[in-house]
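Form 7-S
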Amino acid sequence: MKTALASKVTKTNSVSPIPAYLSRIPEAEAAIRLTPDRLTQPRVAVLACLLSLDHAASHFDVAQALAKHHPIDRVTVYRVLEWLVDVGIAHRIAGDDRVWRFMVNDAKASAQPHHQHAHFACKGCGQTFCLDDVPKQLNFKLPKGFKLAEVDLKFRGLCLHCA
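Output:
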C-alpha cells in the first residue's frame, strides 16, 4: 500500500501545468512569417513567451520560462530577442538594475517607433509595464542644435499586485 501511494504521489508531483506561452505559438508563427527572415523554433518559442506576458521580461526570465518545454541556450535566446527588436516585433527597455527587458510591440499602435511611449517600473516586484495612454507629444523644447532620437519616459511606483 505504501508503494502504491508513493507512486501516486510521484505521478501527481510530476504533472506540471502547461505554460501559457504554448497557446501563443500559432500567433508567434504568424508574426514571424510576416518578416523576410526564416521561421525557426527558437524564434517561435521566444516570441510566444513574450506574447504570453503582460509585462516586460529579461533575457533570464525568457530562458527560464522556456527551459522545460523548449530548452534553448542563453546566447540563442539573447540573439532572438535582439532579432525581435531589429525587425520591430518587440522593443527593449532599460531596467533600473541595468538589465534589458523585452516586450512585444502593440500591433494596434501607430506607425511611429514604438520607443515613443512610457513605461511603469514597479519598485515592489521589479516588473516593467508599457503605458500607452501617455500623450504622444510632450511639450518641451530642446536646446538649439539638439536633435531628438527617442524618448525614454519611465514612471516608478507599485503595480496593482504590489500596491
